[in-house]
């Protein structure tokens, strides 16, 4: 039975010769003789039944078939080089760099970091926080925690962790706290609402789910990042819209009130890992996160 692929050694010799357009330079790069490269390419031409190079003076020139094979080899060997480099870098002793929103890091992750390090010591977790738009494809990042709505990109392995729930919260110190207690959600139409530029549609999303016209809400003080918005709410500056996960501990401790509860959005918190890299460390982390989230205050 004929082989599906020619000799990989012959293909490698051809790829280098085609890239350099020189048998001699290919021999130098491969640390073999000129004759060895020539033999490999002749073997490849015999197996394919076509000429891959034409002689032009003292040099060589790719034929149409040679150009077609050169492009395929360039892509295939290029992908192999990238994957091998990533595998070498993914040594289990190396760090797992997890990118996540700064608000999630500060308000949920850091209080649980000692427990994670104790339960997953082999993970060697490093954290990178940002309140801007996180890029799960960023070079060097092993995984990213994101709130996003499906469908998921084809090049990412997404481990869904928890459906997002959002709702209005305010401090007992807020001047309107007593007035709002026991009132329907529509009472917020008379409030100047705190909001964040990093999630500008959060109040509108909540209003739609409450069957309230978003245009009837009054936007008050704005903050660049969610972390600052929550600090403002804790300081009694007004009513903020917040993910339940990030304020559950404050509600349980009485630092924040959520009289209207929380509504589920289309977004999910997920661990995003590029499919091009090994998934070995991602699954234990995803399992740990699922367990911790299941135990978080509701």
Automatic annotation (TrEMBL):
Gene3D superfamilies referenced in this protein's UniProt entry, alphabetically: Periplasmic binding protein-like II, Winged helix-like DNA-binding domain superfamily/Winged helix DNA-binding domain
Keyword Transcription: yes
Domain HTH lysR-type, first and last residues per copy: 6-63
InterPro entries in alphabetical order: LysR-type_TF_proteobact-type (IPR058163), LysR_HTH_N (IPR000847), LysR_subst-bd (IPR005119), WH-like_DNA-bd_sf (IPR036388), WH_DNA-bd_sf (IPR036390)
Keywords (A to Z) from UniProt: DNA-binding, Transcription, Transcription regulation
Statement: the UniProt record of this protein carries the keyword Nucleotide-binding: no
Top-level taxon in the UniProt lineage: Bacteria
PANTHER family membership: HTH-TYPE TRANSCRIPTIONAL REGULATOR, HTH-TYPE TRANSCRIPTIONAL REGULATOR TRPI
Family: Belongs to the LysR transcriptional regulatory family.
Identification of the protein by name: LysR family transcriptional regulator
Provenance organism: Halopseudomonas sabulinigri
């Amino acid at each position: 039975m004929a082989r599906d692929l020619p000799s990989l050694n012959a293909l490698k010799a051809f790829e280098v010769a085609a890239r350099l357009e020189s048998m001699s330079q290919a021999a130098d790069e491969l640390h073999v003789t000129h004759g060895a490269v020539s033999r490999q390419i002749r073997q490849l031409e015999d197996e394919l039944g076509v000429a891959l190079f034409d002689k032009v003076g003292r040099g060589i020139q790719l034929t149409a078939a040679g150009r077609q094979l050169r492009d395929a080899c360039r892509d295939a060997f290029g992908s192999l080089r990238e994957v091998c480099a990533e595998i070498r870098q993914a040594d289990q002793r190396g760090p797992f760099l997890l990118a996540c929103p700064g608000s999630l890091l500060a308000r949920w992750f850091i209080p649980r970091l000692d427990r994670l390090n104790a339960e997953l010591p082999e993970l060697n977790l490093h954290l990178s926080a940002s309140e801007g738009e996180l890029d799960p494809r960023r070079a060097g990042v092993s995984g990213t925690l994101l709130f996003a709505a499906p469908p998921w990109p084809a090049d990412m392995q997404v481990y869904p962790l928890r459906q997002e729930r959002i709702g209005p919260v305010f401090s007992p110190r807020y001047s309107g706290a007593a007035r709002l207690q026991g009132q329907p959600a529509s009472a917020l139409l008379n409030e100047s609402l705190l909001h964040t530029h990093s999630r500008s549609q959060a109040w509108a999303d909540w209003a739609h789910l409450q069957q309230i016209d978003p245009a009837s809400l009054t936007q008050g003080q704005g903050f660049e990042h969610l972390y600052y918005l929550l600090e403002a709410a804790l300081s009694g500056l007004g009513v903020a819209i917040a993910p339940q996960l990030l304020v559950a501990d404050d509600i349980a401790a009485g630092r924040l009130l959520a009289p209207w509860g929380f509504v589920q959005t289309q977004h999910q918190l997920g661990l995003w890992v590029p499919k091009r890299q090994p998934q070995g460390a991602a699954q234990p982390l995803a399992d740990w996160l699922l367990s911790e989230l299941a135990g978080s205050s509701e």
